[in-house]
Amino acid sequence: MKPTLPPNDAAPMRERVRDKSVTLTEDLRESLEAQIVSGALKPGARLDEAELVERYKVSRTPVREALRALAGTGLVEMKGPNGVCVASLSMPVIIEMFQIMSVLEGLCARYAARRATPQQRKRLLEIQDELKALVNSDNRDLFYQVNQNFHDALYDASNTHHLSAQTRLLRKRVSFYRRYVTYQPGRMLATIGEHQAIIDAIQRNEPEAAFSAAANHVTLLQDDMVDLISAVSAYMPA
Which is the most buried residue in 41, 115, 184, 200, by most CB within 10 A? Predict the structure, then answer.
């Protein structure tokens, strides 16, 4: 049986003061996207239109528009009338996405080594210190979130538009699977060293070294891939 939506309190719609420029569709899309990226909604989870209407107290129109927007980013799959599920990726596709991700992150680091401002370089160091403080803790979820902050800061430091946007988009699509790799034994400690190599190259203004360090950080080692296959096999299409 496919998993369905998590309880209402699992990932509520973001609370904020609504202004005229913020639509119901955007709120709903952002809420569902956050649940998918965080893993609260797992690959294969069915998104029932009627249930979403009831939960968010909206009409069917913003629900349908939000689901279409998510389908456009590849986060959900439309499977006929009222048949919408969180996208499941096959292992060959996951591997290909990680390979592309390594190149995109490498490019972001290369540009960061050339363009990052002093404030952006400082931000990378600050987040690295946060990760170091967490590496020996049992709070893997917080480590993963701060790790995402590091990568967001790296994209910002590239001072690009299309590149950083596409890198973020692909990262969202592989986020569920990437989380499992991050949680493998020893990976948190390895992340610290790999991040430091990226930071050092950026601080030295060495674009090619930064590219290599960032690309290598994302590239899955053979042991990581074996563990990943075991961990996520239940969420892959048959």
Answer: 41
As a whole number of angstroms, the distance between CA 181 and CA 224 comes to: 6
Q: What percent of the chain has pLDDT over 90?
A: 54
Right CATH for 91-235 from 3.30.565.10, 3.40.50.2300, 1.20.120.530, 1.20.80.10: 1.20.120.530
CA–CA distances in Å: residue 193 to residues 155, 157, 167:
19, 19, 22
Helix, coil or strand: residue 46 = strand
Higher pLDDT, 11 or 219: 219
Contact 65, 25 (CB under 8 A): yes
Burial 68-94 (b: 16+ CB within 10 A, else e): ebbeeeebbbeeeeeebbbbbbeeeeb
What's the number of CA atoms in the CB half-sphere (13 Å) around residue 9? Answer: 0
CATH 1.10.10.10 spans which residues of the chain?
A: 24-86
Q: What's the confidence (pLDDT) of residue 185?
A: 81
90 against 148, higher pLDDT: 148
> To which H or E segment does residue 78 belong?
strand 76-78
State the DSSP string of 196-209: HHHHHHHHTT-HHH
24-86 has which CATH code? 1.10.10.10
Domain with CATH 1.20.120.530 in the chain: 91-235
For residue 205, the number of C-alpha atoms closer than 13 Å in the C-beta half-sphere is 4
- 94 alpha carbon, distance to own chain's centre: 13
User: What's the rounded mean pLDDT across residues 122-127?
Assistant: 98
pTM: 0.80
Does residue 17 have a pLDDT over 70?
no
